[in-house]
Amino acid sequence: MAISVRVADLSDGPAIDKVLGECYPALFRGAYDEEALAAFLPHIIYSQPELLESGKFFVAESAESGETRILACGGWSLHRPGSREVIAGLGHLRHFAVHPDCIGKGIGRSIFEACAQQSKEFGVVEFECCSSLVAEGFYARLGLQTIETKELTLKEGVPPIPCKIMKTRDTSL
């Protein structure tokens, strides 16, 4: 299966929503209780137009039998999620997901590599992310280290969920 990575745009939203909607519920079961999943999944299984319009969000796709299919997504931003705070040299990894049928095939890594390559143009020398409990291993394999565990509030009225704040200082990004 030949995979290509490209910058996403708004027209990719429905296909990205499909990946997010299949990835997160499948992978998060067992790591979070059912009550927590019911509360927070509806807030994370949809693409974010701001990211899709940023030019810093990528999709990995395959073309089989003449049909192109998005298999994974992810991106980065200069500003910290949930704020407009920008710290020189720091990029934030955002909304990574790989379709459950494609996990472990290097597709998520290929999106990370596209982010790392592009981010150099913006002076980024380190990345930070707020990882779900199940994605901690993925980010660790990319060179990020867990620096703290915290409770993340997605939206008022939604119970906070545990997450891992991870960071790399690998200047070879």
TrEMBL record:
CDD domains: NAT_SF. Residues 3-170 form the N-acetyltransferase domain. GO terms for molecular function: acyltransferase activity, transferring groups other than amino-acyl groups. Pfam families: Acetyltransf_10 (PF13673). PROSITE patterns: GNAT. Signal peptide: none annotated. It comes from the Eukaryota. This is N-acetyltransferase domain-containing protein. The lineage of its organism: Eukaryota, Sar, Alveolata, Dinophyceae, Suessiales.
